[in-house]
Amino acid sequence: MLRLATLWTAGVPAVAPAFSPGPSRYSSVTEAITLVVLLTEFAMLRAGLSRSQVRLYAFQSFAVSVLAVFVAANNGIGELYAVAILAFVLKVVVVPAILTRLLRDAYVGLVASHRLRVATMVLIAIVVSVLAFIVIKQLPIRSPSLPTATMGIACAVILVSFLLVILRSDVVSQAVGTFSLGNGIDVANFIIAAGLPLILGVVLLFDLLVAAVVFGLLIRAHHGRARTLSTETLEQLRG
Amino acid sequence: MAGIDLTPVQIQVFQVLAIVVLAPLLSGAIEHLEGRLQGRRGPRILQPYYDLAKLFRKETLLPEDAGWVFVAGPLVAFMCYLVVPLLIPVLTAYPLPLGFMGDILGGGFILGLAGFVVALAAAQSGGPYAQLGSSRSMTFGALIEPSMLFITFTVALVTTTDLPYFEAAASRASLGQAVRPAHLLAAVAFFLVVLGDTGRIPVETHASTLEFGMIDEARLLEHSGPLLALLKWGSAMKQMILYTILVNVFVAPWGLAGSRALSAVLLAIPVLMGKAFGVGVVFAVIDNSFSKLRLFKITEFMAGAFLLAALAVVVLYLGSG
Amino acid sequence: MVGWELIVVMVVPLVVGLASWWTPAKLSRVLSLASGLLSFVLALTLIPARSATALSGWLRVDALSVVFMVTVAFLYMTTAVFAAGDLRPGGDKRYLRRFFAGFNLFAWAMLMATAVNGFALLWVAIEITTIISALLVAIEGTDTATEAAWKYVVIASMGLGIALFGTIVLYEAGTVVFGSSYEPFYSELLRAAGRFSPELVRLSFVLAVLGFGTKMGLVPLHTWLPDAHSEAPTAVSALLSGALLAVSFYAILRFYQVSIRTLGPAFPRDILLGFGLASLVLSSLSLANQRDLKRLFAYSSIEHMGVLAVGMSFSTRIAVVGVLLHVLAHAAAKSTAFFGAGSVTNTFGTKDMRRIRGGTAALPWSGPMLLLAVLGLSAMPPFGLFRSEFLIVSGGLTDPKDAVAAVLLVLGSAATLGLSWFASQTMLTPAGRRPPSGTGVRGSSEELAPAEACPALPGSPPARSSAWIVAAMATGLGALALLGVHPPGVLSGLLERAARELGALR
Fold it and tell me: ipTM greater than 0.85, yes or no?
């Protein structure tokens, strides 16, 4: 109170507290990209059309590739460039193309496949993400390549992709959910195992490609039998 | 002229006057732009002044059931809108004495009070559309509150205080602080809050009165004459205040007067108008690009804003960013 | 130490699988048989070896891997024999082509999973098994098959995603010793395990159990299993239940090996105990409730996986030897059971147990063998499962956790009741008695209306019990009996060595 009174009479502008320079630019940018990955995951929760979900997945994979380039540039890991380019080609171009081609035969209406209302799903997803952050905070994960907050974000992406599979009742959402789980794990990979040998990275990517083909075939089979992309009909096997 | 220094009291008066006088101008400019974007000639930029002048000359009609709240509502709201510019950085980069009277929470409270009394006045009028508007605006206002709170928490965590001045200072301190993810998230979240509060697409159609979608517009329907003028002026001032907070605290806290020189302060006014108009351009483009959400889907919008604000807090608090 | 056997095992099933896409069905049958036999023989020759490496360390087997490789190869062989009899050529060409290609590639992938060196390649191999087996589950093309395949692939992929995360965390734990870029081979990680950060290893173990446990069928991650195992064609079901679950368990064991060296025995064992008990409880309770024949056996698989997990949680060497023996014996018993189930459903045209009566009359050879397999699954002497469960329980009793061993016995008996009910109802009840649901089904087995037809191969006559099928079942039963009565010396030596590798010293 005394301070306020002297200010009023003296009319001297108060001085702002001194701020630390804040996180480094690399740190902020990479964290922002990881946040974009997480926000895309939330957008997938909401997306009504299967087409939009596939596009969102392509966008998310693009963000992951950009992140890979940043990590490679900052930490001088040459192999990661190759992985980034390959990931871009496979995950942004090929896999969405496969899914879109298989969807072309299917009648893509506005599949109202949300099990809960969108706002409720978003709230649940927020709670789950906070849980992920809290759990990661307890672990001594120190990353040489990315700021520590990104690990929590990667975990949140993984958990929200689970929610996507559980809370949406159509096959494309579930397929995209599984693939975006892979994206979340890729981000986690950059955080803690950026030095994974090139050959293993390539093998993992091709494995994703094969998985995408298989998923696509099964979606086609499901649509062929059930004439719909919804999984509401998959209730016959119980007990 | 150049060497004259103003006392802090004078600068504060300047701040309030700037908002009061320039708010209708901003409103008119945005409407004109929107008209142009739609291929029309658009209304005159000074049209809101003419409208206010016309309304002040007209007579006041009160509905049968209206009581003193009906009359007092617009007056109290206008006074609140006069108080809020004292608390936020409008023209100066340094905090002014009365600026310590209230922090972001205080400012938010006073804005909320203004909205509350307007809704009360509308509810007391007995007209069906006014009551519709008042109940809807209270509901959606309550839903947007958690986002506002979390934005406040973000500011508090970054600057360890609650004052909007210091958040602006933090952003000016270094580029690293300005682009830190939590700050960006809070900025976008606040943008969405402003969009909701000023009644723009996708929450409400600003340009017309559709009864299916009216929220804020409906509250004004029963007032007339000078009271209606005060309400319209008040809502234009609220729009300008929110834009000011958005640009001067979160998005572009540059161009504010760093000293008490008259010239610096006078220069800050067109800079402020320019920045506010920039925000208005963005809103006008959004207006013409998207469609209004169904009333029930506005909760999705609110959930999205809350998501961003919550993530901002979580990333700051539990991470390091 | 020359690893040429490994290279042959890697190449031959892959080539056969790819070739089956083009060769006619008769030739595919023969090739699959040859490949299966060759793999089994080579796996047997690896038993006495201490370890074998190939391809500059990318392929490596030690005693633990050989146990599982023998399991997989044995099942490969017997299922190839069964498939030769079950799928008479003259049926749908596209189906046969897909079936044989998928079948061989599936077996190849499982053999690879046991032969590769390193956690990353292990994950990749198991992922390949998942996607191939998903296609095989869907191959019948019915509504229920597509449903089962979809559930399977989604749940298993999610589980494997978690497992990949666990692998990455383990990799990160290793960077402390090896630097940021290294090949995560088993032996190196084992040697350095003592220096890893305990929290990271703990997290990686939990994630691995959750992830690979989904593929293994541990409760509560098992929801896909009854559907997938019952909707797949019989040969595939046998491979799924006998081999794939075992390979997933093998992956968990690899993580277990590293974890006990870093964390000590307590934590990993508690985790396995928890999941194992949950599996036992749920599956035992569900067994009594089943109408569908193959689902019954699927739940029995879940029960046996629970026994494996609980057995690993006992810290004595006897228990671990019992667990490994259980893997082998379960494979033999379960495959025989599924083969018999396949015979039965082909004969009666339905999987519904309430409609099947007089099994032993209709199937003079496979009927009694199926009964024997069911007895074997219920852990009756003199079969192998009795010996293995005996070893596990006695291992448990010498441990302070003897209460758990008692629970194991009780739950095992409950499961036995379920299986025995099935046996008496379907196989021993003479045809002609009205089934209790009273749906008006006429007496003799030949006139049963196939209400829930298990789709026999489209367009071919129902194979009742051809000589091939009988041979396959006989081999399985023979192996089961051999393991129970007198396991060969080399095999016991192998199991002991594997147990020692898993860290059970007492």
Answer: yes
